[in-house]
Write a structure and sequence with these properties.
Structural class: alpha/beta
Strand order of the largest sheet: 2-1-3-4-5
Distance between the termini: 69 Å
Radius of gyration: 25 Å
Strand content: 5-15%
Number of domains: 2
CATH class of the largest domain: Alpha Beta
Number of helices: 7
């Protein structure tokens, strides 16, 4: 029976040090560290995927906090089920949960539902903020790559018979962008 640990942060600006310290305090020596968003499914995280392939029956996977494993309830519960089917225990240190027990699995299911609920609230707040900004007349997204003067010149070049490819090369934009500008003129 081997004990493995998994520590994850979402960005390079964050540190895994507290997670690693908690894992080492529990006696976990084999620790895999990864920098990837928690919204990325478990099977799409290279380090976690490699660790899961390495785990065998009787091993345990320890994480410092539940949200380090993932934020999507369905994804995490699927991962927990897969670990359970392979007879691999999941330990969550800050909650004192071990999935090898029915109480642990119940508690984990409730917590994951709460984590997904929180994620949905964040998404709703973000969408509300974007809607409010748009209502206030603010432009959302990337700034335009062409000025109004450049757009007029593209339209003039197209009327004079220049190809989309030639115009795109002159302005260093994609042909789709040129096509869109030319279409705007015909509306």
């Amino acid at each position: 029976m081997a004990r493995y640990g998994y520590a994850r942060v979402s960005t390079e600006a964050q540190t895994t040090d507290p997670q690693i310290l908690a894992l080492k305090n529990e006696g976990v020596e084999n620790i895999v560290v990864e920098t990837v968003s928690g919204s990325v499914p478990a099977h799409s995280r290279p380090a976690l995927s490699a660790l899961l392939k390495r785990l065998t029956s009787g091993d345990s996977l320890t994480i410092a906090k539940l949200d380090r494993l993932g934020r999507d309830t369905v994804d995490v519960l699927e991962l927990v089920r897969m670990l359970d089917q392979r007879n691999i225990r999941l330990r969550i240190l800050n909650l004192g949960i071990e999935t090898g027990t029915s109480n642990g699995r119940l508690f984990l299911t409730i917590l994951m539902a709460m984590a997904e609920f929180e994620r949905e609230l964040i998404r709703e707040r973000t969408q509300a903020g974007i809607a409010a900004a748009r209502a206030a007349g603010k432009r959302i997204g990337r700034p335009p790559c062409l000025t109004s003067t450049q757009r007029r010149y593209i339209q003039k070049m197209a009327q004079e018979g220049a190809s989309l490819r030639t115009i795109a090369a002159v302005f260093r934009v994609g042909r789709t962008t040129v096509h869109r500008v030319v279409q705007e003129a015909s509306l």
